[in-house]
Description:
The structure is a single chain. The protein is of the alpha+beta class and 163 residues long. It has 4 helices and 11 strands. The protein has a 7-stranded mixed beta barrel with strand order 1-2-3-6-7-8-10. Strand 4 and strand 5 form a beta hairpin. It is globular and about 40 Å long. It starts with 7 loop residues before the first strand and ends with a helix.
Amino acid sequence: MRLTPGHEVMVRLVKYGREKLSYAATVVDDDGNHLAVRAPFAGDEAKDLGYIWFEPGDIFTEHYWRDRWYSVKEIVAADGVRKGWYCDIARPVTVEDGAVIADDLDLDLWRSADGTEILRLDEDEYAASGLAERDPAAAAQAEQALDTLERIAQDGFDQLLAF
């Protein structure tokens, strides 16, 4: 199911079979594989992640793929200044009943706007999740996706995110 630019869609972030976050977003584009949505920061209060603050007024342009094991979210502050990119390692996105469903696999990557900081995140959480034992094929995909994103992040995401 291809989404129509300009229409609203619900984004549902799932972890271990349970919805961890749900929010409305506007479809930016969808070519049948790569889709992008835009939404304001889904929190009511600022969130300090240690390397970046997510704040009310931030805008997230989120890129998902139906055949890739990651998503890339560009974060721009309310004043229009790009903060960076937050990448989730997740199963390929599905679209059901007009909702974008992303199944998070714990691993993440951060790239600062100026490219000086590229951080692999939550590797301890991932190891503790037991995915490698429960689903070795998914674990291999997740680990490969993190390595791929880290390589892409070296030069930036412009080419990856283009439609």
